[in-house]
Amino acid sequence: MEHLLNKLIGLLAHATEIYQSLLRVVQNEKDAVVGLNLKQLNMACKTKDNLLLKLRILEEQRQQVMDRVADELGCSSRGLTLTQLSQQVDESYARRLLDRCTDLLALIQTLQDVTQQNKSLMSHSMQLIQGSCNLLNNLMAANPVYYRSGNVDNGDQTGRLLSGDI
Questions:
Q1: Is 25 exposed, middle or buried (0-12, 13-18, 19+ CB in 10 A)?
Q2: What angle do CA 130, 115, 57 make, to 5 degrees?
Q3: Number of domains composing the chain
Q4: Rounded (10°) CA dihedral 77, 79, 83, 84
Q5: How far is the C-alpha of 127 from the C-alpha of 125, rounded, in Å?
Q6: Does 146 fall in a domain?
């Protein structure tokens, strides 16, 4: 049982390190968007994908260890949380489990906040780009008429950004 608990604590520590790396990458992603650095943004996305893959593999390993721990304790692994597990093990392991749990929860909350900020930033950027595209599309009439003299009749909207009416 001690071996399983040590392995679980090690997996949680490794997950914490990966989440810290992911937080740094998400912050770099924000800097890339603000700085309009496409190369940096692409690198951040690739790094983020790699870290998420590592986290997925780590989560599978953690789940396997939790299943084995639950079997040792004679309880169901379904719904078994680290807090519940800490109540069923020795004090030294309980403290370490709770510390890892607290660290992970705080880190994940920070990561969610930064990700939400990035989402808002990217959404706002897309709205600005869409507005610029709409402006450029409205600068020229859809079907201009070319006369023999070389003049073009674009209607009244060509070149006008603001209406003369008040």
A1: buried
A2: 125
A3: 1
A4: -60
A5: 5
A6: no
Task: Give strand pairing partners of 152.
Answer: 146
State percent of the chain over pLDDT 70.
Answer: 87
Under 8 Å between Cβ of 41 and 106: no
Q: Quick one: which of 80, 71, 65 has its CA closest to 14? A: 65
Tens digits of residue pLDDT in 135-166:
877 776 555 666 777 776 655 554 445 555 55
On the question of pLDDT at 63 being above 60, the answer is: yes
The confidence band for 81, taking pLDDT boundaries of 50, 70 and 90, is confident
Q: Is residue 147 part of a domain?
A: no
Contact assessment for residue 111 and residue 120, using Cβ atoms and an 8 Å cutoff: no
Higher per-residue confidence, 28 vs 153: 28
- Mean pLDDT computed over 13-22: 95
Give the torsion sign (CA, 112, 101, 73, 66).
positive
Nearest in space to 15 (alpha carbons), one of 108, 117, 128: 108
Range of the structural domain that residue 74 is part of: 2-141
3-state DSSP assignment of residue 144: coil
- Residue 49 one-letter amino acid: D
